[in-house]
Write a structure and sequence with these properties.
By secondary structure, this protein is mainly β.
Length: about 625
């Protein structure tokens, strides 16, 4: 099995492609074991199907159970399929039915090997599975995809490819093999994910294929069949379905104050909310953000301040500013500065109440207020080998810094710590600094940005408290928290920050792919050229084997130009979303957009695919 990349066990930055789905607000609630088992006629495949030879299976779906499968919806191109058990090709099979919507074009279906096999999951050497396809008009079209595996305690992601390309070999057996170093281990949430990557029926005007999964066979190294318990429920790792919010277009909210009891709903253009408690009023200061967890039919959400001295006021509705909304359309942020622009700088004049509203039926689940902090991405990372330790609250521990870590600590770098703690906080201690024993990032000496099981402390923060000369920082780096904590890994790399972005303009039709170091793209329409102004951000929903992507401006007056590749600036790539700023393009192509050329292309250092491109405005 080909190795692709690593998934961190405790983080949403753990990516198959990440998380961040693009655009249409589609629900990511998967079907569950309560789905009704349907009985339908076997689908016609347009020819005489080849039935795989009868074999005993670990799972054959004849009992109707499917609770051990779940849709995986975090990739940027992931559609949410309908999952059910139906009759297909003379037996029961898992039916995966889906329809493309915009940039959401592919189903991903997780099979929870850990729950199915228990301790025997460590014996798995391969998985065989029968895969079939059909179309509503009875035609046959070739379909192909991948079977991903998340292996070991660190959830190493690997994949094998599958295809059904002959009408008389539909369904067809696919095999996913775990090579040396890719072994499953007990109690680690190891699983397989079946995806559809190419559906030729779409190009032929036949709509989307329906995929059928049947006769799953888990085999050990000797080819022996492993028994599975089909009655189990899916219990995948945190990085599969949770653990990580979709931070696309948003800031991280630190030192957050919960608006207790803020849960309500309304119809389109109907407002509802609550009187602000004092702790929320106190948290509304420059640099703060109101964050709303919600759902709405349109994906829109904003605030209403009904008692403002300036008058009843919408904020973030597109007329009075625009909310910052993630690509999953389930989190909205409105900054203090946006509210102040329309309600005045004096919070005491904003009125007692805060309400929410959308242009369609909506529901709000929670509201909080805190300080905005950047979403970091790290490239060219150097591992601090052997940095794994733990301690009690206010207890420090760490190690002497190796030379490669000292060398990596340069302006623009960031220390990334993978950790867990009861409070969700962690920071650094530099115990031997010439300036004295020093905490950095604890909230007094700067604040570490902590989210998704990682803490980020920048070179500039360390330099602020320990001095610009890193030779004065001392030999050791330690970690600490205010509660019991454990650190799993530390690395230092080049920092890039993802931007808060709103007012997105779509680059219509920008969907393409290429091999490593191959570029492709399109001529920029006028609305994209018009959107490329100071403060603008080009945002690309993508996947690549390396997790990297950047822009190429092939017709720039300054010459054929890569932007964001690590040499000409660094694109911020996280969870399947890449951002390149106007300022980065201008640095290398010039301030005059007319000199950038007519075309915009994408590129990566490994095979890549782009699902959509848009241009929006940054909050900075």
């Amino acid at each position: 099995m080909k190795k692709k990349k690593f998934l961190a066990c405790l983080t949403a930055c753990a990516m198959v492609l990440s998380l961040a789905a693009c655009g249409n607000g589609q629900s990511d609630t998967p079907s569950t074991a309560t789905d009704v088992v349907e009985t339908t006629p076997a689908e016609t495949t347009g020819g005489e199907a080849s039935t795989p030879a009868a074999e005993d299976a670990s799972i054959d779906f004849e009992d109707g159970n499917m609770g051990f499968v779940q849709a995986y919806t975090k990739p940027a191109n992931a559609v949410t399929p309908e999952l059910s058990v139906v009759d297909f090709n003379g037996s029961k099979a898992l039916q995966v039915k889906y329809t493309q919507e915009g940039s959401k074009v592919a189903p991903y279906v997780g099979i929870d090997a850990s729950s199915l096999l228990g301790p025997d999951v460590a014996k798995v050497a391969s998985m065989e599975v029968s895969l079939g396809v059909s179309y509503e008009d009875g035609s046959f079209n070739a379909v192909s995809g991948k079977i991903y595996a998340w292996s070991g305690a660190d959830l190493v992601e690997t994949f094998d490819e599958w295809s059904v390309y002959l009408e008389n070999a539909n369904p067809k057996k696919a095999v996913a093999t775990l090579a040396a170093g890719e072994e499953f281990v007990a109690d680690a949430g190891n699983l397989f994910i079946v995806s559809v990557e190419t559906d030729n029926g779409v190009d032929a005007g036949k709509g989307n294929a329906t995929l059928y999964i049947d006769n799953i066979r888990f085999l050990d190294a000797s080819g022996n069949l492993l028994a599975a318990d089909s009655s189990v429920a899916f219990a995948g790792p945190e990085s599969f379905s949770g653990g990580g919010a979709d931070y696309s277009n948003l800031a991280i909210v630190t030192n957050a104050v919960e608006f207790e009891g803020f849960a309500t709903k309304g119809d389109g253009w109907g407002q509802d909310g609550f009187e602000m408690p004092q702790e929320v009023i106190d948290a509304l200061v420059p640099g703060s953000v109101v964050e709303i967890s919600y759902s709405s039919e349109s994906g829109n959400m904003w605030l209403v301040m009904p008692d403002a001295a300036a008058g009843w006021m919408r904020v973030g509705d597109g007329t009075n500013g625009k909310s910052y909304i993630n690509n999953s359309m389930n989190v909205a942020q409105i900054t203090y500065e946006q509210i102040a622009e329309f309600c005045g700088d004096d919070v005491s004049t904003w009125g007692a109440r805060m309400q929410c509203e959308s242009d369609t039926a909506w529901e709000v689940y929670s509201v909080k207020v805190g300080q905005k902090a950047p979403v970091y991405t790290v490239s060219n990372a150097v591992e601090f080998e052997g940095f794994a330790t733990k301690g009690d609250g206010w207890g420090q521990d760490g190690f002497e810094m190796p030379q490669e870590i000292i060398d990596a600590l340069v302006p623009g770098s960031v220390v990334e710590v993978e950790f867990s703690s009861e409070s969700g906080k962690l920071w650094l201690v530099m115990p031997d600094a010439t300036a004295g024993w020093m905490r950095v990032g604890d909230g007094t000496n700067g604040t570490a940005v902590c989210y998704d099981g990682k803490a980020y402390i920048t070179y500039e923060q360390i330099a602020e408290f320990c001095g610009e000369d890193k030779s004065a920082w001392g030999a050791r780096m330690q970690c600490e928290s205010d509660t019991a904590w454990e650190v799993y890994a530390v690395r230092v790399g080049t920092a890039a920050t993802a931007k808060m972005v709103n007012n997105l303009v779509s680059f219509e039709g920008f969907a393409t792919k290429g091999d490593g170091w191959g570029q492709d793209g399109f001529e920029m329409p006028q609305e994209i050229i018009d959107a490329l102004v100071p403060g603008a951000v080009v945002e690309v929903a993508f996947s690549s084997e390396s997790g990297k992507l950047w822009l190429v401006m092939p017709d720039a007056t300054a010459g054929w130009m890569r932007v964001g590749d690590g040499t000409n600036g660094n694109a911020a790539c996280l969870n399947g979303v890449c951002q390149v700023t106007y300022e980065q393009i201008a640095e290398f192509c010039g301030d005059d957009v007319s000199a950038w050329g007519a075309r915009m292309q994408c590129e990566s250092d490994t095979a890549w695919e782009v699902y959509s491109v848009s241009v929006g405005m940054s909050a900075e």
